[in-house]
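Components:
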Amino acid sequence: MQQPMLNTAIRAARSAGDLILRSADKVGSLHIDQKGRNDYVSEVDRMAEREIINIIKTAYPDHAILAEESGAHAGNDYVWVIDPLDGTTNFLHGFPQYAVSIALKHKGKLEVGVIYDPLRDELFTAKRGGGAMLNNRKLRVTQPNSLKGALLGTGFPFKTDTHLDAYIGMFRALTTECAGIRRAGSAALDLAYVAAGRLDGYWEIGIMEWDMAAGILMIKEAGGVVTDFSFNDKYIESGNVITGSPKMHQLMYALIEPHVTDNLK
Ligand code: IPD
Ligand code: CA
Ligand code: CA
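Structure:
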């Protein structure tokens, strides 16, 4: 059952990716709305989401959907979790780092995940129990023994100031211990890069289920660990994520934990 569903996710992600690429040279003339502070949506996000939902609904008319731009669509025990364009701010600036992210949950358990980078034609996929792949290559997280030399990914809490002080404390603690920290602007690709061993670890405050669902399955299937800021698995509920190999996760957690305020637990 998983493979046909993964194939549908791949078809939908590729089709949305093509549509996004075709619009990339006309960003100046796109209609853009502001959803909140520093939170923008363009007609391309909406078109890509409609394309994905059409493809999924044609294959699986009874399945439910949770999509960033159109919200929850009722259905059965299967839920497709969709971010049609992760990295909208990058896309709108012509900054080449964005992706389509699609995951499928069954009774709350992630079954398949796809993250597609249309600019590099990189397709990251995962199946529960079946591993994670980048195009035709099997993925493993890196296995460093220390933060020394490690490259970490993160996202800044740019939509509100609420957690800025806590975040800066975490950043300060990690930046002095590792080789570098990247804020590339697409949480989905950050997670895919951890699975692919391009980043040794990643943390972020306040991301959404559609940002992380596919990437979390990918990292777990590539041998990594994902937790919230309380060392538990409530990352979808809290939006707070720390991830890497088991060792990297432990090293990062030890430096992040002293800065975790009660409302981040
Ligand atoms: C955003 C990106 C970004 C992360 C934000 C997300 P969007 O998604 O993933 O890296 O820091 O929290 O909202 O809005 O471009 O789909
Ligand atoms: Ca997103
Ligand atoms: Ca998005």
